[in-house]
Write a structure and sequence with these properties.
182 residues; mainly alpha; GMP Synthetase, Chain A, domain 3; three-stranded mixed sheet; 3 strands; 46% helix; flat
């Protein structure tokens, strides 16, 4: 037997693809400065001065009078907006009790200290909204904790019956007349 002739195969060398390297973003804002240098302190001072120049003095901000109805309307609109955006806890705090207007101070009673802390953390957005919509930058919001504001919920059938009886004593007469169990 004769040996078979050798066949040469052309095999392409595998192509090596380098993974893309993330490049840091280029800063085009000017010269970069170390955070601990004198020039960074100078830049911070200049930035603070320019921000102060853009702000209006407190005396020039609007102070239009408004009614309690106007305030409650905007209060409810903001609560609805919060609820639509998924911030239901803050919206619930806003609807727990009706806010009371005393001059430019809005007073709100909350049932416990935890709800007061949560409300105070989120009231800055509310305050900005009310000041803008009511055109009065003297508005402030005061929150007070009133433990008696906390509602007692009836869970058992006996508690529910006692609550109904307290609201309408005729419920007891109906229970006896129809010989109903609690």
């Amino acid at each position: 037997m004769e040996p078979l002739p050798a066949i040469e195969l052309e095999v392409e060398a595998p192509e090596i693809i380098a993974p893309p390297v993330a490049k840091p973003p280029e800063h085009t804002e000017g010269v970069r400065v170390s955070a601990l240098s004198l020039s960074s302190i100078r830049m911070k001072r200049e930035m603070a001065k320019s921000q102060k120049a853009n702000q209006k003095p407190h005396d020039e901000l609007p102070r239009e009078p408004f009614t309690e109805n106007d305030m409650r309307l905007q209060w409810d609109k903001f609560a609805q907006r919060l609820s639509d955006n998924g911030q239901k806890i803050m919206a619930t705090y806003m609807h727990m009790n009706d806010p009371i207007l005393d001059g430019t101070t809005i007073k709100l009673e909350l049932p416990n200290e935890g709800s007061k802390v949560d409300f105070d953390n989120g009231k800055h957005d509310l305050l900005g909204y009310l000041r803008g919509k009511l055109h009065n930058h003297d508005i402030i919001i005061e929150t007070h904790v009133n433990e008696t504001t906390e509602r007692k919920y009836a869970f058992t059938p006996e508690e529910k019956y006692e609550k109904l009886k307290a609201m309408n004593p005729a419920v007891e007469l109906l229970r006896k007349a129809f010989d109903l169990d609690i």
